[in-house]
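Minutes, project check-in

Agenda point 3 was the complex the collaborators sent over. CS summarized: two entities, 1382 residues total, and the question is how they sit relative to each other. Sequences were read into the notes so everyone works from the same version.
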Amino acid sequence: MSHLLPQRTLAFIAIATIGFCCIHQNLQAEEATPPSLHAQIDSLLQASQFGPVAEKIDDATFARRVYLDLIGRIPTITETKPFLAEPNPQKRQVLVDRLLASPDFARHMAVTFDVMMMERRGGKHVKSDEFRTYLEQSFRDGKSYLQLSQEILAADGTEEKKRPAAAFYLERDMEPNLLTREIGRVFFGVDLQCAQCHNHPNIDDYHQEDYYGLQAFVVRASLFQPDKKKPALIAEKAEGEATFQSVFTDRASMTGPRVMEGDEVVEAALKPGERYHVAPAKNVRHIAKYSRIAKLSAAVTTNPTKAFDRNIANRLWAHMLGRGIVHPVDLHHSGNPPSNPELLELITNQFATGKYDVKSFLREIALSETYQRSAQLPVAMPSVDESKKQLAALEATSKEQLKLSYAADEQVDAATEKLDAAFAVVKPLRTAIDAANKAVTAALKVRDAAKVKVDARKKEIAGKQVKVKLIADANEKIKQASEAIKEDKELAATAATILKKLAAYNAEVVKSQTAEKGEVATLTTAEAKLKTTQTATDSAIAAAQPAEEKVRTLRSEMINQRGIAAKHRKAAAMATQKATELTALVEYQELQQVIETLTKQIPTIEQSHLAAKTAMPTFEKAVADSQATTTAAQAAMTLAQQIVQKSDAGLTEQRKTKALLAESLAKLQEAAKRLEGENSLAAAQDEVSKSIATKDGEIAKLETQRNTEKADFDVKAKAVVTATGNLETAQANLTEHTKLITSLGAQLSSARTQLEQSRKSQTSTWATIIEQSSARLNAAEVVSLTPEQLGWSVLMATGQRVRQRTAEAAKLNKAKPLSEEDKKDAAKVTAREQEIDAATYASLRNNVTRFVQLFGAGKGQPQTEFFATAEQALFFSNGGELRSWLSPSGGNLTGRLNKMEDPIALANELYLSVFCRTPTEIEIKDVTNYLTQRKDAKVAAVQELAWSLITSAEFRFQY
Amino acid sequence: MKCTYACGTDSHLLARRQFLGALGGGFVVGGLGALTQGQAAEHLKTNQMRVLVVYLSGGVSQLETWDPKPKTDTGGPFRAIPTAVPGIHISELLPHTAKHMDKLSLVRSINTKNGDHGKGKYQMVHGRSQMPGVDYPELGAVCARSLERANSPLPGFIRVGGGGRGSDAAYLGPKYNSIGVDGKPPANSARIDSLTADVDKLRQNLRRKANDRFFSTRRTAETDVYTQSYEQALQLMEKRDVFDVNLESAADQAKYGKHDFGKHCLMARRLLENDIPFVQISHTNYDTHNENFNFHLEQMGEFDQPFATLISDLHERGMLKTTLVVVMSEFGRTPKINVRYGRDHWGTAWSVCLGGAKIQPGAVIGKTNENGTKVIDREVDHGHLFHTYLSALGLDSSSFFNIGGRELPLADPSRAVISELIA
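CS then shared the predicted structure for the full assembly.
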């Protein structure tokens, strides 16, 4: 036969090759139709995208990001440099594949899954290291997430090899409520905590039915450890139900085991006596025939629900993108909808159809453009009008969906009432089953007691029969002897005695056999009685069956109905969410318009303001001029007035003189009349008359002069009126202009304030837009490194790992030197390299533990909330660890930098090592200047430079 | 239907917006405050408040302290003495404290329905009974967060005695975990010997410059919190003397006594003066199943003088108005005296002494019966007390923390403040 084998094998290979070719061709043909997951992710996102989208990151940022996400540390300079220089356009894919193939990937996944599942619990029953090693081995073996979950959820700690898998249960002390919460969070993405005591007050979707559906799986389990020196195990009873009552509404109910979005597990009712492989007893680990824990692992893994798939797909997405599509990752519910439901659906389905293979899934994510987006968001906005139209539609959708959800809520209430009514029917039936079971238990007790008796009797009879046999044998012998030696009387007597004994013992046996008959009869009766009680239980169970079935059906209907309500709420929440995001985009643009308008307006106002201010002196001069004119006119007028007044005074004097003359003439004439012929009088009269005539002439002259003067005065007075008018006008003009300046000034400052406020609002809106944009994957999220990532990255950046590795290599090569022959064997060389890597990892781990203590959250707490303390900063600033890693030595960072003379080369080495990128020109200048400033202390200066980068935000965060 | 305070992160978002809104307006990068003016003002209301908890470990006897029942079958050998408040009598084992009862108050009607050390301590420091699957923050962590000093580099929750870091902040995060202080400055708070202050300034400036560059393109609330932690570290280095109790005067050291509890009281005073929001000291051991009376005679003797001195000092320095003082234990002790002259565990009717901040001074809440075997008026438990502590600090004990999108109540929502105790 054996000679045929090679031929057959060859034939098989040939067929296989042909087959393979065909398959391969088929695959290729098929591959043309379904695009890769990363292409699907990108096209899906492109289709639903709105608002600004970030650019693709450069090679340096990509390398840093992908190293951190896939192997948990930044790349070293020796890894970064060739990658940046590599011309292959496919180099990102090549890098991703190389990282996924490296042992560091499995190690990083072990850390990631350990933290995700255990949240830094560990060490009580299973050492953290053991669990981590188990995970690492699982990832190295390419174990699927499904199998991993199955092992973890089925583990009871009994099998030594699989014991680490039991850590999830054991480290939570198998406490049913704690486990309910944690299974919900870790495996189904729901934090049902509040539903322990009542339906969740803030979250519509979390109900007591859900909490207790999960609790029912674990409610029968407990920790078994009678001897503290021996490892704790998990034991499970066959009894115990998940019953509950709301502390708010008093509604009481119960549920069978059911995982989120799964069907209730229907289980056969077992009667007392048939429930255990090992019945409960002191210091004995009981084993139930029907294990609900086993059902949990089966429910999760043989028919995984959408909720189970969605949870892990979303968590892995969050691992890569720094944020879940649903975020936080353990709050899946309608009020916290996914940022992109289609994307979540796609990756959920693809992860499941991809056989739950974590590695290939992460690969696809890493290759997507979505993953490779920058954290920097450009300003690029959608049309305002279009957005506003959409907003109206979204608002309508939200209202409509909410209305539908209210209607569905009413259906839920109706379904709940029906369920509760059916449950009320089941209750007495269950009581009947319990009573029947009690009878079974009692009958069992009687039966067991009877059986014990029968068994004891049987044993007793058998014992006695052995004795009878021995005596019978002896009797036979002695009988022979006595017949042979008839003369020996003593012998004959002994034979007689033995014969008597034989009879006596035979009688004993008969007596026991008689007793046995009675006891067997009792046992038979007990068996019959047991049978009767069992039959009664069976019929009680059978009687309850339809009612139980009805309860299950109604419960499932109610849950479905809740699902419908939740669906509508989710649709409403999603519409609202999108509306909020669009509003921010519109707001930004409206503010932009305001800013632009103001930016244009302000210079115009400024110009007017300035022009008005410039014109001010003209107005002031006009007032001053008018003032001067007025004053001059007034002075002239006063002068003219004075002249007129002077003339008036002269005139009055003359007139007075003339009056005196006239009076004198009249008196002369009177006297002449009385003294007729007096010639002297006549002559006097003539003289006076002449004088009067002269006076008249003078007066007339004076009057003419005065009239001229008065006319002049009138002209001057008029000039004053004109000048005063002009002054008033000028003053009014000035007032008007001053007002204009004030108003322009006010306009200007208000415009400036408005501009400043608009800019502020715009900045804040922009921050909101950035946050929303990264939530819907238009830009990368900025997230802090995990404690492990930070620790390993510091060890890489400082070159401490290189230093340690050199030391480990020397140690190993000295202890177990490779022969010249070995050195030619590639496999042996690789093995040695791996050995050195492992030793390096082992010796550096404690340092990373220190980072976990300082930068990690507490045991059993979510590990994703960022916090920063002075204590951490002090560790970096004054701690011995970083100081020693930064002290120059051999191949470490500061050692290399010290050897460099050229500051540009030094800056390059520094930035590539710490920030994994080349420095900008200004950064090179700063480094150069600093080295010049500290030229007397280069060794210290180099340490200070390295320290400042390691402690900066760029190092602490993923971007 | 959904409540408005739902985990939908509106308020969270708002806080972030407010924060980021500040970035536009002259926010100094690397400066001291990460808070906007408005938030800082909001903080001012409660940031004067402090807490001192004196924890009497093992379960102090209420009958030998705050609720004596002399001349009854359960009263034991000690008398009750009058205090600064007419009508209030306490055990004669506390003569110094008695002089300051006008600054303190008593709750004599506590029923925690528990006689287990671990569970009792849990109740008293968490304000809730232990529940599987849930981990609540301790009072100290709740206060450290709620009374957080925006610009202080000092830790918010300090336990005097011992060292290391506690893990008592649960979901509030490690930032609010307790720090054990034993008279030495915190780890790494001294500048490296080889680094002069001037050179340190240089490297800090390099660090700030690197941050500024990073921030010109990417800046979030988290990156700011991170960079600020370095500024806090520098401030802490300036303040490391705060933790050195030996810098207190010799007279004060003598006044408080040479034993640990005295020293711890003085340390507490020093920390409170330096504006630490929450300080806890403890005194042990009160678990007197045997020889209850001898033990209490000795223990209260050690407790009384330094405690009274501390209250008096806080009062004289005007700090009592802003410092809540609570003397608590995991439970009281049985009125029944056992055959070994001891008293056993007893959560059914016991007392707590508290005062300062907004606590009404000189008040007595609740009553036990003639021989102290049960509460006959105003029964309360750890939940009510927890609400009351927070309320005495000006906090709304019915409000919520928002932790990563989760709304978590400060205190047990099924309990309420003992409102008559709040001034």
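Noted in discussion: Chain B has one domain: 48-184+244-403+412-421.
Follow-up: revisit at the next meeting once the mutant set is ready.
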